[in-house]
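2024-03-11 09:14:02 INFO receiving multi-entity request
2024-03-11 09:14:02 INFO entity count = two
2024-03-11 09:14:03 INFO echoing inputs for audit
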Amino acid sequence: MTYSAKLIDHYENPRNIGSLDKNSEDVGTGLVGAPACGDVMKLQIKVGPDGLIEDAKFKTFGCGSAIASSSLVTEWVKGKTIDEAETIKNTDIAKHLALPPVKIHCSVLAEDAIKAAIADYRAKTVKKDETQEAAE
Amino acid sequence: MNVLTQIRRNDQPIYLDYQATTPMDPRVLEAMMPYFTYKFGNPHSRSHSYGWEAEEGVEKARAQVAKLIGADEKEVIFTSGATESNNLAIRGVAEFYKDRKNHIVTTVTEHKCVLDTCRHLEQQGFEVTYLPVQKNGLIDLDALRAAVTDKTVVVSIMAVNNEIGVIQPLAEIGKICREKKAFFHTDAAQAAGKIPLDVEAMNIDLMSISGHKIYGPKGIGALYVRRKPRVRLVPLIVGGGQERGFRSGTLPTPLCVGLGEAAEIAMKEMDAESKRLAKLQARMLKGLNDKLTDIHVNGDLDHRIPGNLNIGFAYVEGESLMMGIKGLSVSSGSACTSASLEPSYVLRALGVEEDMAHTSLRIGLGRFTTEQEVDTAVDELVRHVNKLRAMSPLWEMAQEGVDIKSIEWAAH
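2024-03-11 09:21:47 INFO inference complete, emitting structure
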């Protein structure tokens, strides 16, 4: 399969590999995919007090396109609010990396991963609010 | 560059996919050349010397192939390759004997061309038993014995598997088939010239051979068809009645000569080459095991040709690994299915978990593989496996002691 230069660059020099503390209240974690399908993405966001995503990290088990898609979204979400990050579409990822048709599912997974991380972060904030209210 | 002698350009990746195909041995090419040029005659022309010398080339090649498998030269017919040989053998006997017998036994790890031929015959009303294989990739002889009935026309079991290189117990299979009066066909595309084969000792009735798997040309193969007791076939290709009527069409003289030469070289060098490859195989495995944990060889390591390794690198997806090891040409399964994203059906048949199947690479060693290439390959594999494990969430979980099977993954 031939891949675009952008995709190869993200595969060879992936941005933001790593992990954030998943128990931290300002960190949202998304884990999507399945080993049996050949793709698992873990994407994490850290949201600052100003509501902006100040850090993002990923780890991916999957093909080059899956690695590149997750690497790309970590770059894209940084500096965005979670509402803005939520609007990232798989089609934008696929277009940017020029994913071949059989690899479109990698971009879908990356979109799912960011949505899952945001959902996790939101669930934590709601829980935190509830605990605070209960304390008051 | 001298195309007649050079196997590889220096700027090319290291070739480690010898089960997909092999480069032609320069000695084979040399033997073929005159038949492209001044010995161009039609081997079936009986009226002049052009025909006679072409026929002489073809008949010498037929004898060379026959000798490799302990057959009589009259029992060898040329085809376009192992796919055609497999089609002809299985469809040919099934159709010829269909009034008396309607059952075929094969295994789930056969090459696609055998499986698809069987599927085709099922649609024609034949019954097919697909034997499972054990965890090591070998068939259970008792299961075979139980599967063969008096309605079984042919048992088709490959000699050496193309993905995992395991060698089936041919002599034992042949014995069972002979006792039960079923024909025994074996797809020996990956076995001929690599392990000793003897159609008499192993009671083989039909055997498929490929040219390009044994350092011969592509586009040529052979089918051994036993004469005593006679095996009859309905031909797939009819016409001039060449090849005892089993396969019409003018023989491609240079390709036949190439297959013959390749067979002779393989036979002469088999012992020494097997020992050399076994050393390289052990060297590669040791090199990887010394520097990596959590790697697993798929298929039996003892009953295996020395030119094959199929290794699962746990927690690393095979396609991304192949994308990284740019200096190495390997595959994740058969070339026929390398465009598919599905894990190999052969590995699945061994009971390899789907997630491990996604992490497996087929590494093929061959006549032109050097020790230095093996060492380079080990270094490159280790480097990229480590790099990809560092970014694998599954590796991270495993290091934290999380059981990956305990997680409820959403299938997608």
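2024-03-11 09:21:48 INFO post-check: Chain B has a mean pLDDT of 94.
2024-03-11 09:21:48 INFO post-check: Chain B has twelve helices and twelve strands.
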